[in-house]
Write a structure and sequence with these properties.
The complex is a heterodimer of chains A (706) and B (375).
Chain A: H1 3-14, H2 18-24, H3 32-48, H4 55-80, H5 88-105, H6 110-134, H7 139-167, H8 173-180, E1 182-183, E2 186-187, H9 188-206, H10 208-218, H11 220-225, H12 230-256, H13 267-277, H14 289-308, H15 313-346, E3 377-379, E4 390-392, E5 398-401, E6 406-410, E7 418-423, E8 428-433, E9 439-443, E10 447-451, E11 457-461, E12 480-485, E13 491-495, H16 508-511, E14 516-522, E15 527-535, E16 538-543, E17 549-554, E18 559-564, E19 573-577, E20 582-589, E21 595-602, H17 605-611, H18 614-623, E22 630-631, E23 638-642, E24 648-653, E25 665-669, E26 672-676, E27 683-687, H19 697-702
Antiparallel strand pairs in A: 1-2, 3-27, 4-5, 5-6, 6-7, 8-9, 9-10, 10-11, 12-13, 13-14, 14-15, 16-17, 17-18, 18-19, 20-21, 21-23, 23-24, 25-26, 26-27
Helix pairs in contact in A: 2-15, 3-14, 4-9, 4-12, 4-13, 4-14, 5-6, 5-7, 5-12, 6-7, 6-12, 8-12, 9-10, 10-12, 13-14, 13-15, 14-15
Chain B: H1 2-13, H2 34-37, E1 40-43, E2 47-53, E3 56-61, E4 64-70, E5 76-83, E6 88-93, E7 99-103, E8 107-111, E9 119-120, E10 122-124, E11 127-128, E12 132-139, E13 142-147, H3 157-162, E14 168-174, E15 181-189, E16 192-197, E17 203-207, E18 212-216, E19 225-228, E20 233-241, E21 244-252, H4 255-262, H5 264-273, E22 294-295, E23 315-320, E24 326-332, E25 341-347, E26 350-355, E27 360-365, H6 366-369
Antiparallel strand pairs in B: 1-27, 2-3, 3-4, 4-5, 6-7, 7-8, 8-9, 10-11, 12-13, 13-14, 14-15, 16-17, 17-18, 18-19, 20-21, 21-23, 23-24, 25-26, 26-27
Classes of the chains: A alpha+beta (706), B mainly beta (375).
Chain lengths: 706, 375
């Protein structure tokens, strides 16, 4: 190995560049830009503004953020639902006036005033919501009109009531506490705002109403088709916006105790700036409480400090307007380009150097080419799509999965008739019968399922323990692909990769990193945990005859391993075969005590070379269209028989793949070998010349049925 | 320096530099299955260099010179007329009995006619005619020869492409009176692989690795002028037709190949360590061995290779007007079986298409095929 190769190997082992793509694919990455902006802003003002971090300044900021934050939150909720609410500022101002009338003029009790003010906000929001949600008017124009109307009402009332407000006075301690009291040093109003924010965070991220809201904002028609009451959802968003703005107005009134002609002027622009700056998309469907809070903090800190530095109001507004334009621009670019960056960044190849494969063209090689599989009989041609694995029961019925999410049963002994044995929904991959005759099946994208002989489907497991420090959520099973059952009933199954979904499985070959794992499901306790980590496309789990170990294939490194889960060698992994000429897939028992393994595709020199040049593959993934990427040659496959020592005993080929291209699985049953392929439309049946014609895998492993 | 910066910026942004994008097959080049639908008139492995002579149709298979004679059923019977000391790289007839035979790695020899037995191996100035990829008689005493590469035989074309060479040249050889004298007409061409006489006395040369056809003036040395550029495949032989030309394109361009051509490190290691048959490179035929690389779109689904799959080989014949603009095309797509067309000959109203990659000759009705064809 040359020096530069060593460097490449070390660089790709210790620099985890696959994390970049994984982080980019996280939803919270949207918050990165506003968060960084906020940190920079705080740092800048912390340095240039001497009393920026003083207690009084922070307490004051806390009160303001409580009021302003509630308005921004209300607006953000409307933005998430796909609308816009320009009237928040007018509702806020109206609420300030209403609070003062309640406390100073009418001398109502504080809780009653608060309730009435919020009710008024709800009413204002309901007007907006009715117009926009039910009458389907344009949100922008409608709320622009209500902004003017509410503001006019304020102006009219203010003229009439201003003298009475100034003359009146509230001596309520409660109002004083709401306005300027603190709990544990934190202003009361901030506690209120925090409680509401946390509540909304839970609603938006964990509860149905929040998900419905984002669904409506993200894709209105799809939400409607999914059965969501779109009009009511939109209506309620405006109601919440009105209520939160009114509450903010009440808090403001409690703090300041007066109002003026300029109260709330320009608040809608600041609130909109804050909401968009935080990352709430103007297009709807994307937003969170954290985004609203970050945006509110940013805008408030910026405008407060600008005021402190003596920047005049109009200039301050201009700066805020520029910030709004800039954040709309960034939001647009980000939204448009994130998936592009992601698709370019996600594929992250690792270094893999394989020795030259054994030649299959040499007639003396154990892999020597032949045409024996060209004569296979074909079962179910055109009736099935994608039988990754096939299995036979004691009654000679043949089972296979299809891409449509069915398990299809062909009735023995001639396999001419078939029925849908069970519909599960995901593509069934590896299958195995347990002691009771239940069919256990790994489903791509779903997990481990069980189908009883009475055709009842039950989920066994779809998650495992999340590994520490993983960025992708690896607790969900993305691509469970083959299983076998230990004599005591424990189920060992493989998950080929945690980074790709079912349909993109071959792209994992471009990475050739240990993205997969072996997982143990224990039916006695119902627990699932990851047994072996970081394996390269593990596959083909098959119990060895000793009952305390199993074989599994690591496809992209062309190797077969043996893992001991019991006995003296417990916990160790031995390499049984390395450097196969192709990529091993499912492994199953043969009637003579040995094992069959399917090679799902063949290694090509061009790809083997590319595997040792990760930079080449990474650039290829960025520059070349996915359909033109270099892939493992999965158009040709073969079946190989091996023994426990790793000797190759036999190889069955269909050269050119005319009858049976790509083999991912094979089962021996009563003298025949049945062949499945994940992108085939048929099952092959090959007569084994010298196999036991009465051998049944289920009887062999579990014993004959009593 | 600016080029380097541009290259780095293109790498960073992930777009292609100008000139390395593969054009779509569209307009007159819209794919069809005309070559697969055409009748196969002969099956000869490695058939190449179809040429019409007064004595009938000739062709080559390795070092064998073949005569193709019509037989019953409309097919052609191949008969070995002569075996030459080296693989035949090109054939050209002057229409009066002389036949110029390009011997790969050795030069050109003339059989029959006035200059029977003349041989051209040395081009003067220390240059040898190693790679006679095409020849054309301009008159009974003037032969134009394309030397595909200065230092490698024509059979090594794949290496020439993947090493990004452009050492080809075109020569005019005066045969009359004494020893042949060679004059260079153009040089630094990227594998000239076909010759034809243009309308205005210019020479049309297909420059394979630059995916274009250029015109050169044999009288006045000027830089070559592109008459047909940005082809989606690598052009080779040009055959004159009534009111235009036939152009054979022997292999498709592929985005992955263009990418590998820019990837110095990978390309160098591939060229030095892997058998050329298994390179990421265009080919005359493909799919025969599982050691060939495949691309994502070429994975079989439901036991089918889709016609639009990316492929290393393809079959393509283009009909051009007198100004060398394409007007119609005849394809054999990724799933087709007439790949690697290297030679064309029009005889008796029939265009014979020699697919070296698939070892087959198919016949197209030249009259019906000369205009727009219905999709």
């Amino acid at each position: 190995m040359s020096g530069s190769d060593t460097l490449t190997r070390l660089r790709y082992r210790y620099l985890p560049d696959h994390l970049v793509g994984e982080i980019l694919s996280k939803r919270w990455i949207d918050n990165a830009v506003p968060f960084v902006a906020l940190v920079v802003l705080v740092a800048v003002f912390g340095i240039i503004s001497p009393d920026f971090l003083s207690v009084s300044s922070i307490t004051d900021l806390g009160r303001q953020i409580a009021e302003f934050g509630l308005v921004v939150l209300g607006l953000s909720i409307v933005l998430m639902s796909g609308g816009i609410d320009l009237s928040v500022a007018s509702v806020f101002t109206l609420a300030v006036l209403a609070s003062l009338i309640g406390t100073n003029v009418e001398n109502l009790s504080i809780p009653l005033t608060c309730a009435l003010v919020v009710a008024m906000g709800v009413a204002c929001g309901a007007i907006n919501g009715f117009l926009v949600g039910y009458l389907r008017l344009r949100a922008f124009l409608t709320t622009l009109v209500t902004l003017i109307i509410f503001r006019s009402i304020y102006d009219i009332l203010f003229l009439k009531m201003s003298t009475a407000i100034v003359a009146g006075f509230s001596d309520s301690d409660l109002l004083l506490f709401i306005g300027s009291g603190t709990i544990l040093g934190v202003p009361f109003s901030l506690w209120v705002a925090l409680a509401i924010a946390i509540g909304w965070h839970i609603v938006l991220s964990r509860m149905r109403p929040g998900w419905r809201l984002t669904a409506v904002g993200g894709a209105r028609r799809s939400a409607y088709n999914a059965g969501i009451n779109v009009r009511r959802t939109v209506f309620s968003a405006y109601v919440w916006s009105g209520a939160l703005s009114a509450l903010a107005g009440f808090l403001f009134a409690a703090r300041i105790g007066s109002t003026g002609a300029d109260t709330g002027v320009g608040l809608e622009v600041s609130a909109l700036t804050a909401a968009v700056l935080g990352g709430n998309s103007l297009g709807g469907g994307r937003g969170s409480v954290a985004k609203a809070a970050m945006g509110a903090l940013f805008v408030l800190i910026l405008s407060n400090n600008l005021t402190n530095f003596g920047v005049s109001g109009p200039v301050n507004s201009t700066i805020l307007g520029c910030v709004l334009i800039a954040s709309v621009f960034v939001d647009m670019r980000w939204l448009r380009n994130r998936h592009k960056w992601l698709s370019k960044m996600y594929v992250s190849p690792a270094y893999l150097s394989l020795p030259a494969p054994p030649s299959a063209t040499d007639p003396k090689s154990p892999f020597a080419l032949n045409d024996r599989l060209r004569s296979v009989e074909i079962i179910g041609l055109g009736a099935i799509d994608g039988p990754e694995d096939v299995i036979l029961d004691r009654e000679d019925n043949l089972y296979c999965g299809t891409r449509h999410g069915d398990i299809v049963r062909f009735f023995g002994p001639d396999h001419q008739r078939h029925e849908v044995f069970a519909h599960i929904g995901g593509h069934p991959l590896g299958m195995q019968f347990d002691r009771e005759g239940n069919l256990l099946v790994c489903i791509g994208g779903m997990g481990l399922y069980q189908v009883t002989p009475k055709q009842e489907v039950a989920k066994l497991t779809d998650e495992t323990n999340r590994s520490f420090l993983s960025v992708v959520d690896d607790s969900r099973l993305r691509l469970a692909d083959d299983l076998d059952i230990a004599p005591d009933g424990r189920v060992y199954f493989s998950e080929a990769t945690v980074r790709y979904e079912q349909e993109e499985w071959a792209t994992d070959a471009l990475e050739s990193r240990g993205n997969g794992r072996i997982i143990l499901y224990d039916p006695r306790t119902g627990t699932t945990r990851t047994e072996i980590h970081r394996r390269v496309f593990p596959n083909g789990v098959c119990m060895a005859n000793d009952g305390q170990s199993f074989f599994f294939a690591e496809s992209w490194i062309a190797a077969i391993q043996r893992y001991y889960f019991d006995g003296p060698k417990k916990g160790t992994i031995e390499t049984v075969i390395s450097n196969l000429p192709g990529y091993p897939d499912n492994i199953n028992r043969a009637s003579d005590g040995h094992y069959w393994v399917a090679l799902l595709g063949m290694r090509t020199p061009a790809l083997d070379l590319a595997l040792s040049m990760p930079g080449f593959r990474r650039r290829m993934a960025k520059r070349v269209a996915p359909d033109l990427w270099l892939y493992p040659n999965i158009n040709t496959g073969c079946v190989v028989k091996f023994d426990e020592q790793g000797n190759i005993l036999d190889a069955l080929w269909d050269l050119g793949g005319q009858n049976h291209p790509m083999i991912t699985s094979m089962r021996e049953h009563r003298g025949y070998l049945y062949l499945g392929g994940v992108s085939n439309n048929r099952i092959g049946r090959y007569k084994l010349p010298d196999a036991d014609p009465n051998w049944c895998a289920e009887d062999f492993y579990w014993g004959a049925r009593k | 320096m600016i080029q380097l910066l541009k290259r780095l910026y293109a790498d960073f942004r992930g777009f292609d530099e100008v000139g390395s994008t593969v054009p779509m097959m569209d307009g007159p080049l819209k794919p069809n299955t005309a070559l697969d639908a055409a009748p196969v008139v002969a099956r000869v492995p490695e058939i190449d260099n179809l040429a019409a002579t007064p004595g009938g149709l000739v062709a080559s298979r390795g070092a064998d010179l073949l005569a193709l004679a019509p037989q019953s059923g409309g097919t052609l019977a191949a008969e070995v007329r002569q075996t030459l000391p080296a693989p035949i790289a090109c054939l050209a007839a002057d229409g009066e009995g002389a036949l110029a035979i390009g011997l790969d790695g050795q030069g050109v020899t003339i059989r029959g006619g006035r200059h029977d037995g003349a041989a051209i191996a040395d081009l003067g100035g220390g240059q040898a005619l190693r790679s006679p990829t095409a020849a054309l008689f301009l008159g009974p005493d003037t032969l134009v020869v394309a030397n595909g590469a200065a230092d490698a035989p024509a059979a090594d074309w794949k290496r020439d492409l993947m090493n990004r060479r452009s050492s080809g040249s075109v020569w005019s050889i005066a045969l009359g009176g004494g020893a042949p004298r060679a004059t260079q007409l153009a040089r630094n061409l990227a594998f000239p692989y076909g010759l034809a006489l243009g309308r205005d006395g210019t020479l049309l040369v297909s420059e394979a690795w630059r995916h274009r056809v250029v015109a050169i003036d044999p009288a006045a040395p000027k830089p070559p002028r592109a008459v047909l550029a940005d082809l989606p495949a690598y052009p080779c032989r040009i055959a004159p037709a009534e009111g235009g030309y036939w152009l054979a394109l022997f292999a498709p361009r592929n985005q992955l190949v263009e990418f590998v051509l820019r990837e110095e490190g990978y390309r160098r290691r591939m060229v030095s360590t892997i058998d050329p048959a298994y390179w990421i490179a265009p080919a005359l035929s493909s799919g025969a061995s599982f050691l060939e690389p495949i691309q994502g779109g070429a994975r079989k689904k439901l036991n089918m290779l889709k016609p639009w799959s990316p492929s290393w080989s393809y079959g393509l014949v283009v009909r051009c007007d007198p100004a060398m603009r394409p007007v119609a095309s005849f394809h054999s797509r990724a799933d087709g079986s007439i790949h690697g067309v290297t030679s064309l000959a029009e005889a008796g109203g029939t265009l014979l298409v020699g697919a070296k990659g698939s070892g087959a000759v198919v016949a197209l009705d030249a009259q019906a095929a000369s205009g727009e064809i219905e999709p």
